[in-house]
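Database export, one record per block. Field names are fixed; values are copied verbatim from the stored entry.
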Amino acid sequence: MASNPKILGYQPGQSFIHEMSGVSKLIFFILVSVSVMATYDTRLILAVALASMVLFHLSGIKWRQITFVLAFIGIFLVINLVTIYLFSPEYGVGIYESRTLLAQGWGRFTVTAEQLFYLFNVFIKYFCTVPLAILFLMTTHPSQFASSLNQIGLSYKVAYAVSLTLRYVPDLQEEYSMIKKSQEARGLELSQKAKLSQRIKGNLQIILPLIFSSLNRIETISTAMELRRFGQHPKRTWYTQQALSKIDYLAIGLSLLVLIVTLSLFALNEGRFYNPF
């Protein structure tokens, strides 16, 4: 059965990213994400953000497949930036130890170059981590992801639980979409034409039964796993586990290089922040 391109989950593809081992993609994602989140060096963040966007383009994933996720993250990003400014409108002034006033606002709400520069760094951090996270999720088969977690030392029971979760999320989205369409076919308006209160009420009528059906499915799966004596042995083999290739070693090497550069910039900048002022 062909996968629905609008469902957020693993999407088969022919790119070199799809063919990479799950363990190399996991290591790359973890090391690069930790490096980017730890530093505020704009030069490094911009370089990683650009590389992330290039990798996303090369993966063949279409933007229409992740519009909902991007909208949700965009809203969260705006709320985050506004909250930072409201609580501390001159936080950047204290970080960079200088004050370049651009506009005098009302009371303590001023506009300084240092604060804008800090908010810009927070903004571009999302372009580093979000594309990588989506890329990893949509190009890595859940079973391969589970084997990767087990390869790096995580218990196979936990890894298998993560695999089941990743498998179930697209199914849940698909089931929700089917129920919604069937309800709309029966005359229940859930589109943007309906009032907000009507849409909330209609979606609750879908979500609540979906939650209870999900709990029943979890019980069925756990019972089936117990009957097959899952967890009896301390170790297990993985059908989807694959050996590392040259491209995998290159990805791991690049992630280590990013980590080393981050640590070097800590020493060069005498801290986490790059100060152009």
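Remark 1: The longest helix spans residues 196-227.
Remark 2: The CA atoms of residues 61 and 177 lie 21 Å apart.
End of record.
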